[in-house]
Structures are given as C-alpha cells and as structure tokens.
Amino acid sequence: MARRDEPKVERISEAEHAVMEALWEKSPLSAADVCDRVCAQRDWSMPTVKTLLSRLVAKGAVATEAEGRRFLYTPLIERAAYAGQESRRLVDRLFGGRPASLFAHLAESEALNEDDLAEIERLLKALRS
Amino acid sequence: MARRDEPKVERISEAEHAVMEALWEKSPLSAADVCDRVCAQRDWSMPTVKTLLSRLVAKGAVATEAEGRRFLYTPLIERAAYAGQESRRLVDRLFGGRPASLFAHLAESEALNEDDLAEIERLLKALRS
DNA sequence: CATGGTCGATTACGACTGTAGACGGATCGA
DNA sequence: TCGATCCGTCTACAGTCGTAATCGACCATG
To answer: Which CATH class is domain A14-75?
Structure first.
C-alpha cells in the first residue's frame, strides 16, 4: 500500500474533529463562521472554538491565511485521509487488522440493512471487474 | 435492531482495552495473570495493571470474585458488544452512520486485499441466501 | 509472636481534553 | 484622533488517561 507522506499530524481529538468537519464542509472559514456551524450542534461558545482552531493549527491540521485583520482557516489534511487513518486504527485494534472481520461483525450484529448490502454488493462487483 | 440492555458501561479507554483483551482471551484471571499477559506487549508494571483493573471494575466493565485473599477478574461486557459499539461510533462519526460508506472507503483506499474481498463476498452471499 | 511477602486500595502526577474567561492589539466609526 | 469592537493569543481549570509509588491489611513461616 503506497503510503503517501501525508502531513504527519498528531491525533485529532473528538472536539477538534467537529471543527474539522465544519472546515471540510466548506473552507476557508473565519473563526466566527466555524462557530456558526459547530456551535449549533455542540453547545459551544466562541472561545471554545478558537481554542480548538488554535490547537489544530498547532498540530498542523489546519492552515491560517490572513484576510484583512482576521484569519481564514483551511484544513490541511483531507477528510478521506483522516477517515482512513481512524478506520485503520479501529480495524487494527479490534479486528486484528482484517477489514473482513469488521464487515463480518457488522453483518452479524445486523447493523447492515438492505440498502447497505446492495451498495456493498455493487461496490464489490465494481472492484471485481 | 433489538438493542439488548447491555450493562451500561462508560467508555473504555485505550489502555483499559488492552486489559479487557487479556480477560476476553481467558478469564477469570488474577491481577498477576493479567499482568503476565499484557505487560509483555505494553511495557507496563504491576501497579499500572492494577489501576486499570480497578478502573474497569469501577466502570462496571469487569467483575471481581474473591479467591482466597486475591481477586479474580472477569469481563462483564462481551468483546463483540464492545467491538460493535466502537464500530458504530466510528461509522456514525465518520461515515454518516452508513456502513456502506465505510466499506466504500476501505475499498477505495485499497485497504482491502484479495482475501478480504473474497471473504466479504462469501459473507454477502451467505446473508443473501 | 514477630516479620516479611503479597494483594488490593489509595494517592500521585504529568499530559491531554473540553470548555471558557481575560488580555491586548488592530480597526472602524464618529 | 479616540473610544468601541473584533479577533487571535494566553491563561485557566476541572476531568480523564497513562503510568506508577506507597500504604495498609492479611497470611505464612520461623
């Protein structure tokens, strides 16, 4: 698996992730914009959002760009990369690194509905062609 | 999805999880036994293992049973339940609650090898029958 | 009966996380 | 030009996590 050298970003915490989601949805955004988006779901105040943004910048997960006197924030890591990293963590930790085990588990626990199965089947067929 | 009312256990941390793995592999075990198993991988000392065991007992994830003067520890939650809970968390957080998206992601990132694909295909076929 | 080893329980403590207030500089309106 | 704003930074603080030393009870042995 040709591992691209992604910007080696430290682990993103749960709260930080919520901020990243906002930025992935749209960027660049000012701190106030981010707050508008996340403070709706999580019940946060401006300072909280700013702290999280700072930490993300410190970690190298987000870039700042001055726009006038304020900063605009842009994610440096891609959502897919993050999702992949987290998925791999889970699969490694709980399923001995075998994705098929995860799938088996989901199937067994009936977490897969008809749509999921159909979709997976379709993907599988596509991969096999 | 008929959710059984599992013992509502607080979130198990990474380190605690390592202890749970030991207990899932074999139980009941004394603290020393657990240490034998986990101190091999993680480089821990006895006190560390005992702290983790205590925390797990406090959280209701592990039960104690006196055997002579020492305690024997037994997991109260099942591995599958834990795996399911964590998987759901991941799918909810990163894939909008759609397991198929997780699968798609794994496929796209080439995290699935031939064996995985074959296995999943087999499972899928079994589910469909 | 005294002593030392064995356990679990208690305490410690630094790092990280979640959450937020206070500070200080830049800026815009008056 | 002067204060009211806006914004990023610094500071704070309680809770959790990872890691471990220490304490106190208990039992076996001399």
So the answer is: mainly alpha
